[in-house]
């Protein structure tokens, strides 16, 4: 197949502004290329994507949907990179069999019926705005095979839990090294933004008296400064936003990953990255992480928004065998497994059987 992948328009690839979509796009592209398919990625200028053909498009970035309220109208800036990317896709569409959209934006969904080539959508977030809900529901009603989600919990936020295709997600397991004997430190990884509720992990670290190492893009500086003011004595260290190979070197040495999303996390790439290093995951029982973590076996699922629950789970970490964490990642989240699921989806869209 000849595949054209359109990235998120909220940031260039490698910037961290795109969150998990950046890694997801890279891994699906690699999985498809390993199978002999041709892939080209279209992304905002300044993107870095080693080993994958890339077309960079200039223009102004989109505002991330998760920073907006439910009734927010659809907005595009002047000289919108999103619009420019889709104009490029329109011009070259006949060179491809299928176009895959990774952007959580209204425009690509709206444009779907106007393209002569099939446009597939991998929805990267749960329901955030009414306008996005409507266009996703309309697209799925008209093109039921062309929309996929990462988790059932995510699809349920659009009222689509039963009828949807769930792809899960995957990582390149070779890039993550198992670590049997960690330091006592805890890890927290993600965009530093209110929907990720870093403050709960900081509070749990303070009560437990265990250091929390924080990795991720500082997306909302005011939010971060408030956490620093509210917890001046918490045992925490902001390490920065690291590329995958450096991130995993640090993550693997941690005793557990603490995941505290306030919103319904569509999937939670960081959970499978931790498991791949043998790091147990303590997460709220909500959204994607609740479908990933095997409670009591590869981590703990905790009452949502309960700092006490996090603290209790931290106390029980010695019950978890780190080998079973790595094993789960190998069984469920390999690129090969993701390639199978994605290829089956594309074949359904194109109406072709297995060769
Ligand atoms: N990440 C990274 N370096 C860091 C911290 C995070 O590359 O220092 C990446 C991480 O690998 C993951 C993404 O940021 O792919 C966060 O994705 P996730 O699905 O957990 O959350 P999202 O940001 O999409 O809400």
From TrEMBL:
Protein's name in the database: UDP-glucose--tetrahydrobiopterin glucosyltransferase
User: Which GO-annotated molecular functions does the record name?
Assistant: glycosyltransferase activity
Residues of the signal peptide: none
- List the InterPro entries: Glyco_trans_1, Glycosyltransferase_grp1
Please provide the record's keywords in A-Z order.
Transferase
Q: Taxonomically, which superkingdom?
A: Bacteria
Pfam families according to UniProt: Glycos_transf_1
**In this protein, which residues make up the domain named Glycosyl transferase family?**
187-330
- Keyword GTP-binding on entry: no
Q: Which SUPFAM superfamilies match?
A: UDP-Glycosyltransferase/glycogen phosphorylase
């Amino acid at each position: 197949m000849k595949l054209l992948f359109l990235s998120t328009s909220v940031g260039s690839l490698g910037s961290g502004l795109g969150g998990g979509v950046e890694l997801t796009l890279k891994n699906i592209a690699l999985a498809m290329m390993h199978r002999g398919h041709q892939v080209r990625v279209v992304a905002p200028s300044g993107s870095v994507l080693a080993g994958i053909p890339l077309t960079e498009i200039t223009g102004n970035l989109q505002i991330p949907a998760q920073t907006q309220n439910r009734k927010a109208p659809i907005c595009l800036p002047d000289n919108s990179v999103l619009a420019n990317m889709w104009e490029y896709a329109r011009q070259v569409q006949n060179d491809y069999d299928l176009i895959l959209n990774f952007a959580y934006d209204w425009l690509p969904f709206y444009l779907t019926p106007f393209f002569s080539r099939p446009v597939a959508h991998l929805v990267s977030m749960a329901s955030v705005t009414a306008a996005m809900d409507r266009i996703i529901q309309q697209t799925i009603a008209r093109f039921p095979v062309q929309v996929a989600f990462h988790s059932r919990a995510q699809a349920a936020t659009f009222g689509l839990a039963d009828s949807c295709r769930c792809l899960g997600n995957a990582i390149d397991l070779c890039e993550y090294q198992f670590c049997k004997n960690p330091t006592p430190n805890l890890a927290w990884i993600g965009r530093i933004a209110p929907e990720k509720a870093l403050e709960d992990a900081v509070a749990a670290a303070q009560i437990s008296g265990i250091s929390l190492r924080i990795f991720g893009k500082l997306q909302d500086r005011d939010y971060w400064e408030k956490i620093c003011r509210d917890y001046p004595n918490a045992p925490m260290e902001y390490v920065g936003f690291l590329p995958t190979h450096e991130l995993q070197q640090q993550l693997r040495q941690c005793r557990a990953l603490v995941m505290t999303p306030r919103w319904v996390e569509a999937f939670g790439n960081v959970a499978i990255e931790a498991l791949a290093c043998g790091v147990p995951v303590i997460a709220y029982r909500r959204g994607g992480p609740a479908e990933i973590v095997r409670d009591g076996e590869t981590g703990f699922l905790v009452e949502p928004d309960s700092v006490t629950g996090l603290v209790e789970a931290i106390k029980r970490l010695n019950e978890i065998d780190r080998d079973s964490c790595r094993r789960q990642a190998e069984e469920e989240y390999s690129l090969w497994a993701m390639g199978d699921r994605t290829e089956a989806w594309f074949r359904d869209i194109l109406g072709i059987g297995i060769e």
